[in-house]
Amino acid sequence: MRPADADTIVASATPTGRSALALLRLSGADARSVAAKLCPGGPAWLPRRASLRRALHRDGSLLDQVLVTWMPGPGSYTGEDVVELSCHGNPVIVEGLLDALVVAGARPARKGEFTRRAFLHGRVDLVQAEAVAALIAARSPAALAVSRRAMERLGPTLADLREATLDLAAELEAGLDHPGEDLGQADDEQLAARLRQLAARSQGLASTWRAGRVRLEGARVALVGPVNVGKSSLFNSLLAQQRALVSDQAGTTRDVVERSVLVDGLEITWLDTAGERDSSEPLERAGIALGRELVADADLLLVVVPGHQAPDSVEAELLHRTADRPRLLVASHVDLPQVPGRAVDHRVSGKSGQGVAALRQAVVKQLGQVAGDPDQGALLVSQRQHELLLATSKHLAEAAGALCGLAGPAVAAEECSRALERLSELSGEDAREDVLDRVFARFCIGK
Ligand SMILES: Nc1nc2c(ncn2[C@@H]2O[C@H](COP(=O)(O)OP(=O)(O)OP(=O)(O)O)[C@@H](O)[C@H]2O)c(=O)[nH]1
Ligand SMILES: [Mg+2]
After folding, report:
1. Both 49 and 145 in a single domain?
2. Is the entire prediction scored with pTM above 0.85?
3. Element of type H or E holding 270
4. Which atom of ligand 1 is nearest to the CA of 253?
5. Region for residue 215 given its phi and psi (left: phi exceeds 0; alpha: psi -120 to 50; beta: otherwise)
6. Residue 384 domain flag
7. pLDDT tens-digit map of 167-199
8. CATH number, domain with residue 151
9. How far away, in angstroms, is 286 Cα from ligand 2 center?
10. Which residues contact ligand 1 via a Cβ below 6 A?
């Protein structure tokens, strides 16, 4: 546990605006005395008992009638004395109460400071704090599900990984401490196999970030392809609304058109782009370039090709350029006779809607896919977790390599302890202040 800031902090826990009620929260050693200065009269202060009190201006006039609950530490959210005040949800009242509480001795809280204090007092670890941040930021049912899963399962999954790594580190250290009882070659091989297994487990868990991120932040799915193949028709059909212009003129779409919708609880932003062709027209070339730029970070490409026409050089170049990207190959015009021999993942008609529902489901499936590993119950909720698990995996793999190679057991033990450091950083046991600043900056004020 680290020393926490001694100040008593205050913030509104609800957003600014008009509402029936708003909630203010104080945390710190003086929380109750600060609240008592604001509400001098009223009933005796009893722990965890809501009491109706009069909050007064310094001249004794009424600021608001408030419902106050005092939760003494360490059994509170932050682990410190906490007071919650429910007042009427008017921004002028909220500001007045906040000002009065600051005059009474509290300091305005910084972003995420309540949860940071909960962390500093050992009430939550960093992984749980990140799950809370994800829960508050969630914009879709899928995002909510991931943050809940992270709250319940990520901690135990990581604790298991850490335990297993600790065991191996201890065995490696024991071998170093007692060189006389040197482990045999077979033992080294067996230890290396266990290290490799753990490396694969960390790697598997790290790879869940893709599916976690897509659920938390939503996914961008872009339709690309040659001109006039039916991208905009398919875009409209996927959205089930007429959003993009469709015409039989090649080069209809110029700007990128985008639209976000929930599909099976997942937030998907679909992007329709200008069709590709060798054009000498500056405006069309600019549209094609803009499209390429805006789909560079798409999570999935739907490469649309005309199923009723033979492939041409534009299509060949596009297939080559997108070969390393996550993509689905989609042939349009399935309602017309198809050119044989083209290998595609889906055949659809944006005009009749044939095959579009199946494509939509395939997109959701592909976006949500998690590499098959035993830890697939929990998905990661931050890039930080992803990077630390990749680093853990790398150190474990290097430890295995060292044990069986020339570097030897001392280097293997060193690599294994590096892996442990990364895992400690993950839970926050060994995280630097700047790391904490970065994690808690993602929170809002009042959380
Ligand atoms: N029969 C049939 N016609 C289609 C299909 N998809 C699109 N079309 C027609 O093909 C023409 C071009 O369709 P768009 O959706 O505008 O094609 P696009 O790929 O967006 O074209 P650009 O924006 O110019 O690149 C229109 O006349 C559509 O009605 C399809 O699956 N079957
Ligand atoms: Mg178009």
Report:
1. no
2. no
3. strand 266-272
4. 23
5. alpha
6. yes
7. 999 888 887 766 655 555 568 889 999 999 999
8. 1.20.120.430
9. 15
10. 227-233, 246-248, 250-253, 275, 332-333, 335-336, 349-351
